[in-house]
Structures are given as structure tokens and as C-alpha cells.
Amino acid sequence: MNTQSLWEKEALQTRLTGGQVTRQEKWLGYLLGPAGALLLNAVLATYLNVYYTDVLGLTGVWGGAFLGLFPIVSKVIDAVTNLIMGQIIDRTRTREGKARPWLLLSAPLVAVTGILMFTVPNAGETVQVVWVMLSYNLFYSFAYTIYNMSHGLMVPLSTRDTEQRGSLSVFTNVATVMISGIIVALIFPMLVLPALGVDKSKWILVMGIISMLALPLTLVEYYYTKERITEESAGSAAQSLPLREQLKAVLTDKYWVVIVLYFFVYTFGSNIKNVSLVYYCNYVLGSYNDGVTQTMVSVIGGIPMGIGIFAVWPLAKKFGKRNVTLAGFVLYVLGGIVCLVDPRNMVVVLIGQFIKNIGGLPCAYVFAALMADVLDHMEWKCGRRIDGFSASIQSVILTVCMGLSNGVFNLLLSKAGYIAPELVGGETVAAVQNAATQSAIAGCFLGVEIVTGVIVIVLLAFLSVEKVIHKEQAEIKARQENTGR
Fold this sequence. Notes:
Layout (H helix, E strand, L loop, with lengths): L2 H5 L15 H10 L2 H21 L9 H27 L8 H17 L8 H28 L1 H5 L3 H35 L3 H24 L4 H5 L10 H9 L2 H32 L7 H27 L1 H21 L4 H14 L1 H22 L4 H30 L5 E3 L2 E3 L5 H26 L8 H15 L2
Antiparallel strand pairs: 1-2
Helix pairs in contact: 2-8, 2-9, 3-8, 3-9, 3-12, 4-6, 4-17, 5-6, 5-9, 6-17, 8-13, 8-16, 12-17, 12-18, 13-14, 13-15, 13-16, 14-15, 14-16, 14-18, 16-19, 17-18
């Protein structure tokens, strides 16, 4: 059975019909469906490094070099698989689209590989190191690459209607910010982490449950999304541009280069902050797993995100997505500066975090819509979509930044003299970290994003794609009508 006939089976077809985005599509395909895989990824982004340093005790392996270099080296593999996956998506031709079918494949892969990362055997150091490297790359370089790239294209391929696309962008980011945030930022530090401590069996149980949730929810995302833009060219003989031509096209386009650089800088800063969050709350701002400090920081950060659901898109429609995002990053930087005034003072830090997270709202909710505008612009420029390649670059950035930030942070911990907590008589006992370690942690959590925020402000000044997008979309539609005659 060939691929096309496989996707003609009714059981594998989308549950959506019609050309307009529906309420069912928003709530199931873009809010509920992505919640499983995004929740797992959010938990891993914040707590996987804690599992490696505190539960498995790998900080000192190879003199600290293992946890410093392994994430970075792993992302070289990841970068290659992302580029390959982008080309695969661009060459996929099925009735159900070119990206959506890969959501279906990713559902079981994400669940299984998520579990494997935590079921590290109680064996010698070499066995554990090999297991960690293999399981990490099976998840990030294989399973999550497939999911993340196909998921990332759902908004750009959903519709050409910029207003509907903006609405879907908000919904898919609510899944990331709110649903993941409630678990990762509130329930985990307040209830889960204190109960887990450094007990490996408890970690495996909890992470196994979270991993398995991704399977049914990703299936929901698959069945309640639709690639209307792909359907426009169904039956067309047009082929994807060769990779060399794609590279030439994107690297010579101002809008594409700017939005990719913006995404890289912002992602790196966010990842450094995320990986250092637990350590900052445990050793600088509060005490180890006190159930209060991290919860307070997360609550203050989460309140603006809730407000943003209702406020951001109306502002973006009135003032423009780029302009609102740029203004937001000004607040983002100011909030970070407030935190640095006294990084050990809870009140000062909470005020700064509140200001900072208000500033981050536009980025969180409208980036996908901005990226969709750039992809439409590239179609106008080249005559063909460059979705898969662009998605692969985004995914490369996500994974490289995660590896780079984890590696840099772990090297800083090792060199500063970080001491992992121990399980003594069934209780977790944490050490008091030295001044160098505390300074390194505070700098990563508070300082890096100030620098990256300033860089993003400069980049956004050049992202004026909204001025031309409606005219270019009209020309794309005229071309398609002429071709169809």
C-alpha cells in the first residue's frame, strides 16, 4: 500500500471540514491536543537537568565535562536530524497534508522515549552514561523532532486568513504557557518536587505518567487540525525547491533572517533562565524544595500570561504584531533590571518578574502568527512554500539552544563547586552552596535575559513584514487562480 492510499483511509482523516477555522478546531486541535507533548517538553526543560545532577549525581562525571559537553554534542546530531526532517516534510504528499501525518507517527514515539530517559539502570557509571546519551538523543533528535516540527507548522498551514491565524496562534500558545505552566510552574514546585526529592523510583513513576499523557493528546491534535494552505495546491505538479535554492532564498531575505535571529536569541535566553530556575529558588532566593519560593516566582510570572489571553491579540490587531512585541521587550528588559537590584530579596524579584512577564506576553502569543506572515512572504517571493526548511531551522534552534544552555550552565556549576543533595535515611539533605555557585546561578537566571532582550529589541526594528503581507497574499491568490485556469 502506498503512502497516498494509506492516508485516504477514513480512520486517518481529519475530523474537520470546511474552509473556515472552527471553535472545535481551536479548543481541541490547538489547545487541548498539543498540551500533552508540550507539557512533557516543559517538564523536561526545567527538571531533566535536576534529575541528572541531583538524582543520578552526574555533575562530577569526567571531571564535570560530561554534563557540560554531552548536551552540546547531542545537539549536533539533533541539528542534522532537524534539517533532514524539514526536507522530508517538504517532500511529503498526502491527502492529510505534509506536516500533520507526522503528528500521528510522533505520538507513540514521544511517549516511549520520554519514559526511557528516566529509566536509567542502577549500574556502573559507564552504563549510565551510555543510557543517558542514547535515551536523550532518541527523544530529542528523533521523537520530539518529528513532533515539534510538524506541530510548529500547524498554524502557518492552517489558513491564509491573518485574523483566524492569529487566533490559532494565541490558542496554541495558551497550551504552552497556561496548561504547561500550571503543572510545571505551580504544582511541580509546590507539591511534586518536595515529594520526589532524589528518590529515583518516584521520578520514574511521575515522568512515566506525564510521558504517556502525550500519546492520546497528540492524537487529538492530529484529528482536529487541518492544512488548508496545503490543500490549495493539492494535485499540483509543483515540487519543493532544491535545498541550495531554499538556502539562497532565505538567507537573502531580510524578514526571514531577522525572525530567525530573533527566535534564536530569545530561545537561548529563555532556556538559560529555565534550566537555572530550580537552582536559583533552591540556593539563592529560598531554601531547597521549600514548596514556596519557586511557586511564588511562578505564580507572579503566570498571572500576566493569564491576562494576555484576552489582551494581546486585540492590541496586536490595533497596533501591529511587531510593534506590540517590541514594546513588550522594553518592559521585559526593565523587569530584569529591577530583579538585579537585589536578587536575594523576594519582594524585589517578584516585582521585577511581574514586569518582565507582562513584557513577554506579545512574544508568547503572537510569534507563530508573525512567522506565518514571513512564510507567506517567502511563498510570494519564491513561488513555492518553504515551510519544512523553516520549521527545521526553528527546531534546530530550539534543540541547539537547549543543549548549549544546559551545557554552559552545567559547566558553570561544576567549575563553581556545586554540591548535589543526598538521600540520607530516606530524606533528601541539601548542602549550602558557596558564593561562586550562587553568583553563577543568579547570573544565569536574571542576567542573561536582559542582554538577549536588548538584542531582540534591535532585531524587531527591522521586522516590517506586516506592511506588505496583505498585498503579497492577494498576489499569491491571483497566481493560483491563473494557474488553475
